[in-house]
Amino acid sequence: MSLANRLSNHFSACRLVSLAKVKGASEFPNRDSRGPYVIMQHGYEPGDATMTGADYILGRSGAWLGTHWFIRMPVPERRKEFLFSTVAEVMEMMENLTSKVEVIRDKPDNVSGDAPADEEMQKALTES
């Protein structure tokens, strides 16, 4: 059993994951040689008394989304909100984050309840 820390918007708590080997990576305009990227973190939601850890992906909105929803999102919406073409783009976004952690707790509107998981994306995230 691995211990989890509370989710944080501090860059040192996050992992930058390259998705360069995922099908469709070359479709990203102006990506750098290892892009696209997602920002991940393993932790528990602020205020969670059980301190149950899970994996989360940080979106451009500054909110964290559980990977279990991320891998079920339609590809266009996932790309628009959660994938970054370059490390510079990631750094700029991280610099503008506030210290207040926001978590998308409910199923996103664009995810149907029975949407299958994107197995290729799930594999890329778990192998990182």
Distinctive features:
128 residues, alpha/beta, six-stranded mixed β-sheet, 6 strands
Task: Describe the fold and architecture.
Residues 105-128 are annotated as: Disordered. This protein has 128 residues and is an alpha/beta fold. The chain has one domain. The protein has four helices and six strands; from the N terminus they run E-E-E-E-E-H-H-H-E-H. The chain has helices at 67-70, 75-82, 87-95, 119-126; strands spanning 5-6, 15-18, 37-44, 54-58, 63-66, 102-104. Strands 1, 2, 3, 4, 5 and 6 form a six-stranded mixed beta sheet that branches. A hairpin with a 4-residue loop joins strand 4 (54-58) and strand 5. The two termini are 19 Å apart. The mean pLDDT is 90.
* Portion in strands: 15-25%
Q: How widely separated are the two ends?
A: 19 Å
What is the global morphology? globular
User: Main β-sheet: number of strands, strand sense, barrel status?
Assistant: 6 strands, mixed
Alpha carbon gyration radius: 14 Å
Mean pLDDT metric: 90
Short description:
Helix content is 23%, strand content 20%. The chain has four helices and six strands; from the N terminus they run βββββαααβα. Residues 105-128 are annotated as: Disordered.
